[in-house]
Target: Thioredoxin reductase
Amino acid sequence: MEKVKTLIIGSGPAGYTAAIYASRSNLQPLLYRGIQPGGQLTTTTIIENFPGFKDGIDANQLMMEMNQQAVNVGADVRDGAIVKADLSKRPFICEDERGNVIEASTVIIATGASAKYLGLPDEEKYRGQGVSACATCDGFFYRKRTVAVVGGGDTACEEAMYLSGLAKKVYMIVRKPFLRAAEIMQKRVMEQENIEILFNTNTVGLFGEQGVEGAHLVRNKGEQNEENYDIAIDGFFLAIGHTPNTELFKGQLELDQQGFIITKPRSTATNIEGVYAAGDVADPIYRQGVVAAGTGAMAAIEAERFLQDKGEK
Ligand code: NDP
Model:
């Protein structure tokens, strides 16, 4: 059994920043990169909203730099995923997929969240070529073009509003005859001239020679007046929710209704002493790389103070 002061689970901006801070305060952290090394950002292309890169930076490169920075300051960064976590008492016992057992005095959970997709084969086909789950990340590429946002919740409305400031036209594809978003958000999208809401509408597929050029839609699916039609679009944005990657901690950590880890106010501390949560796994609201990085730093600082208080540093 391997013993560590700090085990970090996840390799997005939260995990790597936690590793950098924890290493620099001599916690010799062990970081497991998980099944998607680099995290959600690696599904996008250029990042232009992470400060410090005046011309933007390739997302994969940014994550590789973070990885290298963590290694340079002494973090033990490993491939592989933690598949078992017993948080019932300290030290916490975790196990990776190869059966290696780790005894950790503190755990920083930075397992992120995954955007939900509709499950259409075309979403895979055009991923990075017109299909995106993050308007803030990719909207800029659609200036003066036509895009569609799928979903009728707050996220979809926010994304549609954001995109309406860049794109020529924004369709919202909403499967129900109403929006689920807060009233004020509904009002905003309804009043925005270049947003058109397609109610009772589902997406059946996407088409295009070089990237997305349009979507096949069906209105009133399963009804007598069912109608198939196409719209011409350059970008297809999913905004049907995110699933936090918290399966491993269910029944152990306090989660909200959607499964996000609940942290104490102004802190990354969870309901279990010595367990911290950083990044999107505990953030249903902002979901930005820079915010995740910030909470990663907080988690490492809190873990360090905790170990110091316990005389275990
Ligand atoms: P929601 O679960 O609130 O909404 C998801 C939307 O996507 C719904 O319109 C839903 O339709 C639709 N949808 C889900 N699955 C499919 C599917 N397979 N095909 C087509 N449509 C689908 O998720 P959000 O991400 O919008 O919000 C999550 C939480 O975060 C909410 O509590 C929200 O209020 C909150 N939030 C708050 C913000 C704020 O206050 N500023 C900003 C963003 C989010 P249907 O209604 O038919 O289920």
Q: What stands out?
A: The longest strand covers residues 101-109. Helices lie at 13-24, 59-72, 121-125, 135-138, 154-164, 183-191, 289-309.
